[in-house]
Amino acid sequence: MKKLKTGLTATGLLALAMLAGCGEGGGAGASASGAERCPHDIKGEDCPFCHPEMVEAEGFCGDHGFAEALCAECRPFLKAAFRAQGDWCDEHKHPKSQCVACDPTVAKNIRPGEHGGPIPEGACEHGTPESECKLCNP
Known about the structure:
Elements: H1 2-20, H2 53-58, E1 60-61, E2 66-67, H3 79-84, E3 115-117
Antiparallel strand pairs: 1-2, 1-3
């Protein structure tokens, strides 16, 4: 009985230690270097949602039709941020706002080979016409 009790106590302590790591700045979302995560569940310094100036500075991704800084195809780490915002298509494993399969109209912004160019005139900060932007108008 004593061995069983000791085993249960050790298991309980291990579970508590794991739960303690799930708070702010730590846990499963933190990198090995301890970089601070933003509310969008990515490194704060790389987050175009926290730093909208990145959208303008990095221009347009013609291959995928979105602002380069927000292109989930070019920057797969952004998928966590889109999920955190509730902008996610489970069926196609892509942000809803960038899912060509669900919304073929997003394909009209695709201009192959055009990277880093200016964001199209009349577009919002996300690189799409503001009236059609799923981030500006959820």
